[in-house]
Amino acid sequence: MGEDALEKVMVGFWEKEYDVLVCTTIVESGIDIPNANTLIVERADLLGLAQLHQIRGRVGRGRERAYAYFLYPRDKPLTEHAHERLATIAQHTELGAGMYVAMKDLEIRGAGNLLGGEQSGHIEGVGFDLYIRMVGEAVQTFKGERPAEEEVDVKIDLPVDAHLPHDYIGVERLRLEMYRKLASARSAAVLDEAVVEMRDRYGEPPAPVANLVAVARFRLLARAYGLTDVSVQGKHVRFAPLALLDSKQLRLKRYHPDAVYKQVTEQVSVPRPATRRIGGEPLRDQALLEWCAQLLKDVLGDPVPAAASPA
Question: Among 89, 105, 240, 286, which is least packed, fewest CB within 10 Å?
C-alpha cells in the first residue's frame, strides 16, 4: 500500500468513517487512536512478548474501557515459550507493567548477549553492557581522562537456560542490580566477588543462576582467546575467528576428527556433542559450556593472561 493510500485509511479510521481496521503488526508503535477500544490479534502465539505488549498498548488510550483478545489455534498445542508469553501478557495489565514484561522477556529468552554488546529484551530501553560503557566513558570524560580502548564484544549464542528467577531475587531493582554486576565483570576476580555477594545476600543459586555465571566465565575465556562468536548452527558449534597454524590444525583433527576449519573465514565448526554416542540428547547448559572451554584449551592451549581491566 502506498504512502498516500495508507494515510487515507488511517485518517478515515481516526474520523470514524469505519469501525474496523485490519492491519499487520506495523501498528505496534507510533499509532495513537484514543477511540480504539477493541483489539483482536490472530496467531498471537507467533509474536514476541515485546510485540504483544506494544500492540496491546494501541487500545485503551482514551476514556473508554478497552479489550484485547489474543487468539491462537485451538487444535495446535502451544510451545512452552508461547504459553509463557501469553500468560505474562494476561497477568500484567496494570499501568507501568512494562518493567515486569521486560524482565519476563529476559527470563523466557535467556540472557543471550546480556553480558555482551548485543542485548536480549528491552530492560529500561538500554542494555546493561551499553549502559555501563556509556556511564564509564562519561565519567572518564568528566575527569579529563582518555577513555580506554573498547573491548571486543563476544557473542555467545548457545542453548543455555541462564537468568535470575523471580523466586531467587524477588525485587526487580535488586535483580537488575545483580545483572549489572555480572555484566560489568571484566575479570574472573571481579566476577567471583559478585558471585560471593550474590550467594551471601540471596542464598545458594539455583541452576539458571549458576548457568548465568557460567556464561559470564566462558565469555571471559572466549575474549582471552580473541573470539567474537561462539554459537550453535544446526548440529554444529561454530567458533570464530580462529586463525590456526598447521600444528594447531593437526591438534584440532586429533581431538575432533569431524571438525571443519575454514581458513578464509577463520571459522571452526565442530559437531555438537551429545550426552551419549547412541540415542543421547545434545549437550546444553553448563555441560556444553564446559565442552566448548575444553575444546579451546585442547586446541589453543592456555590463554595468554591479559592486563587487568577495570570492572
Answer: 240
Find out whether 253 and 259 touch, Cβ atoms under 8 Å: yes
**What is the rounded CA–CA span in Å between residue 311 and residue 307?**
12
**Nearest 5°: CA angle at 68, between 67 and 70?**
150
pLDDT tens-digit series, residues 155-204 = 888 888 888 888 898 887 788 888 888 887 889 999 999 999 999 999 99
Task: Quote the cell numbers at residue 181.
Answer: 554486576
List, as one string, the DSSP characters of 216-266: HHHHHHHHHTT--EEEEETTEEEEES----HHHHHHHHHH-TT-EEETTTT
What residues contact 242, with CB distance under 8 A and at least 6 apart? 227, 261, 266, 267, 268, 300
Residues 6+ apart with CB under 8 A from 118: 112, 127, 153, 155
3-state secondary structure of 198: helix
Residue 112 CB contacts under 8 Å (≥ 6 apart), including other chains: 118, 119, 120, 121, 157
Q: What is the pLDDT of residues 125-150, one digit of tens each?
A: 445 555 556 666 666 676 776 655 55
Query: The whole model's pTM is what?
Result: 0.58
Distance CA 53, CA 28 (A): 9
C-alpha cell at 293: 572451554
Query: Are 295 and 273 a contacting pair, CB within 8 Å?
Result: no
Domains recognised in the chain with CATH numbers: 3-93 (3.40.50.300), 123-300 (3.90.1150.50)
- What span, in angstroms and rounded, lies between the C-alpha atoms of 85 and 293? 33
Dist. CA 57–CA 68, nearest whole Å: 9
d(CA 106, CA 58): 23
- Cell numbers placing 290: 564446559
